[in-house]
Amino acid sequence: MEKKSNFAYIAVTALKLLIICAFIATLVAAVNFITKDRIVYNQKLNTALALSDIYEDDGKVFSVSEDGGYEIKDKDGNPVGSCENADEEFSDDIDAVYIIKDKNGEVFGYCIETSPMGFKDEIDLLVAVNPDATVKDVKVISLSETKGIGDKIKERTFLDKFQGKKEGFSLSNAEMKNIIISGATRTSEPVTKAIDGALKQLGVLIGEAAE
Amino acid sequence: MDKENKKTNKRSLFSRLMEGLFDQNPILVQLLGTCPTLATSTSAKNGIGMGLSATAVLILSNLLISLLRKFIPKQIRIAAYIVIVSGFVTAIELLIKAFLPSLDASLGLFIPLIVVNCIILARAEAYASKNPPLDSMLDGLFMGLGFTFALGVLGILRELIGNGTIWDIDISMGVYPGISFFTQPAGAFVTLGVIIAVVNAVKAALSKRKGGNK
Hints:
The complex is a heterodimer of chains A (211) and B (214).
Chain A: H1 2-54, E1 61-64, E2 70-73, E3 79-85, E4 94-102, E5 107-114, E6 124-129, E7 135-142, H2 156-159, H3 173-179, H4 185-210
Antiparallel strand pairs in A: 1-2, 2-3, 3-4, 4-5, 5-6, 6-7
Chain B: H1 2-23, H2 34-40, H3 44-67, H4 77-99, H5 101-107, H6 118-128, H7 133-163, E1 165-166, E2 169-170, H8 185-213
Helix pairs in contact in B: 1-7, 3-4, 3-6, 3-7, 4-5, 4-6, 6-7, 7-8
């Protein structure tokens, strides 16, 4: 009899906690449903701003188009090119690869969105690549790394080290030693490898296109 | 009779507001939540943003915990509180990401940490689990305002002394370069210590005057 009442007590307690969890999960799901499109739009807007910053000298301004892609205009608002999503299967870290073309259809760059795992969470990176497959620039779109340590990867002194790098640069110990930030290895190392990984993926894509 | 009750309620509301802001201020008096206080008070915008986010979580979690106080078994109450608080924190985090992206960029890392902010669990355990919903909501509001007030003052002082700006506006017209020590964690400790000392001195002076009047 006592065993039965113990079981009933455990079952009721567990059921009550389950009900509370289910209620909270429903609430979070509802808020997620309301906010998810807006969050994706904000992320794309950040990427568009970063791309505009990278191609500022070329007079190109990027914005988010209605279909969720990117539009390229000049400073007067006239369309000057396109940003096509390379719709292929990529490795886990690569979120998207965009081929940036001028209005004549000539490729003047590539843009790779990649999100390697940092020390705490995923780091959203934007790697802009020249037509000759060397790095043009790297921007950190978002990160949740420790302030004053891991977030040093946002500094230009770190990001500028990647300019002009070619695929496979991270295989050299000397290169890695020069790039990695001492004290923030667990953030700067995955970022460095992710940038090289992005170049590798792009190399495959360019190779396939050439074939 | 009704008028008298209303008067008593109004007076108690005011005294509870004062309690939250000064007498029982979670940061300046109870010294709770020091970690987010020091980390997020680098500027007025960050401090007030963090304070208001925590206030929203405090009000909502106090309300739900109070509504469920007879439903939640005593033995699993902490687990239930954590689930409730973390649910509201996640919801607030998503809303900030969607509608206040600039605040998310500067506070993003600290918003999820509101889940383990001891002010919220302390108010759930000490107040919301024993009092009716409206009272619990008001407790969350007043304690949250106290938290926001302390974070706001700390943020304004640190930003002003550290950068010469308030709310990102350069009020020194570029004349004052700022003392970067105050934007660092050590500067946060010193500034918080000075604010606590000033609040204590004012309180001591006020209670002395009250004693003298008697």
